Amino acid sequence: TADLDNFRKLMAREKTDAVVYGNQRLLEELLPVLDNFEMGLQAAAEDAESMIFKGMEMVKKQLEDFLSAQGVEEVPAEGQVFDVHVHEAVAQEESTEVACGSVLRVMRKGYRLKDRLLRPANVVVAKAPEPADDGSGEASE
Fold first, then answer.
1. Integer Cα distance of 89 and 118 in angstroms
2. Contact at 8 Å (CB) between 105 and 123?
3. Helix or strand or coil: residue 116?
4. What is the distance between the alpha carbons of residues 41 and 32, in angstroms, rounded to a whole number?
5. Helices 24-44 and 51-69 sit at what angle, rounded to 10 degrees?
């Protein structure tokens, strides 16, 4: 009977996961569309008074509300300490603005569905500036 009880618990958990994560594939396929939409919105922002920009802003709000209702949230990245579990480093740049090992800039947003990562954030990570050559001629060989 313990095996039967464990089986029932497993089936209940799998059913719950199927409901909660059933749209995962669809949501993952929607993310590149969202990326392209945001690039278009940035271009339209040059004329923030235009009807095109205002319409795109309304669609963006609808998309954000839809994703939020599905349990999708953006992975925090800019200014955060680089986390291999949710960030993917695409480059490193010298910076004195943020701490070494922190995310300097986001190249592509990352998203999670509840506690599952849909897509990591592609980020540029800060590294310490190289020491300047002071011209003293004391370079090591």
1. 16
2. yes
3. strand
4. 14
5. 160
Which three-class secondary structure state does DSSP give residue 20? helix
Taking the mean position of all CA atoms in its chain, how far away is CA 62?
19
Tokens of 36: 């392209």
Per-residue pLDDT tens digits for 6-49: 888 888 887 766 666 678 888 899 999 999 999 999 999 898 89
pTM: 0.74
A 10 A CB-CB count for 78 gives 14
Distance CA 51, CA 96 (A): 40
Q: What's the CA gap between 38 and 45, in Å, rounded?
A: 10
| Count of helix runs (H) and strand runs (E) in the chain | 3, 6
Count of residues for the chain? 141
Tell me the residue type at 47. D
**Residue 125: its H or E element:** strand 121-127
CB burial class (10 A; 0-12, 13-18, 19+) of residue 7?
exposed
CB atoms within 10 A of CB 43: 12
**Integer Cα distance of 8 and 139 in angstroms:** 70
